[in-house]
Design a protein that fits this description.
single chain; about 60 residues; about 75% helix; about 0% strand; rod-shaped
Length: about 60
């Protein structure tokens, strides 16, 4: 009976796959967070003059 060497490349590949999965998850979370921040920023930029005009007219909602 022949004895074959124990191959460890499969274990290393599985570890690499786990690391890549973790990295992809972190990127996904940060991408989602970035997109939320940009969306909120864009909403504020688009609505910026309106609250200030309301404040100058004595209406509520001015954050200036």
């Amino acid at each position: 009976m022949e004895r074959y060497p124990e191959l460890k490349s499969n274990q290393n590949f599985m570890k690499l796959q786990d690391q890549l999965e973790g990295t992809e998850n972190r990127i996904s979370v940060e991408r989602r967070r970035f997109n939320e921040i940009v969306l909120n920023y864009n909403k504020k930029v688009r609505t910026f003059p309106e609250p200030c005009l309301q404040g100058s007219l004595g209406l509520k909602g001015c954050f200036c």
